[in-house]
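Lab notes, practical 5.
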Amino acid sequence: MQDWMKLLLAGAIGYLLGSFNPAIVFSRLFKGRDIRTMGSGNAGSTNVYRNLGPKFALAVLLCDLLKGVLAAVIGQFLFAGTDMDLGLYGRFAGGFGAILGHAFPLWHGFRGGKGVVTAAGMLIVFDWRVIAVMLAVFLIFAVSTRYISLGSIMAAAALPVCMLIFHFGHWFMFGEALLAGGLVIWLHRANIGRLFKGCESKFYFKPKK
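Output from the prediction step:
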């Protein structure tokens, strides 16, 4: 199989994995409601925390993280025995597919979450330095302001910068990093509007009962 076909296959498998959205599945299965009709309407762990509680939120977070990890591992596996660069491409292609699947899930009417945790899962496998920088950026903004959305937006903006720093010259992955970071920011467009208006919800460890 040619390398470009392996990249497409990695992306396709990642997309199918990413299309499984635990926030939607768990809310329907255990609460009889779609999380997209509750709170902010986002199918992610923060909205689950606020509306279903910490246990469900932790389960959703771990599942979303695992999607990104598995997609990247499968992408690497498809290039097993090849040079390091192709392995990196496979990891990133698989993870990028998972982010797309999370945002536009095939199994849930193409309306999913924002892909931040899934992206983090992929980056754990891809390069620990990138995820370390992005996690630091996220924590600085999220903890200091209590806006999870702002931390996510700034971490997404840091992704292509990290790619330039740690993987300069890998322009295919840099292009995917721009697309992935841009997609996450675009999916936060409603949050950005609320941030500018001063009406974005802050995060506290007091989930709705």
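Observations recorded by the TA: Residues 54-78 form the longest helix (25 residues). The chain has one domain: 3-197.
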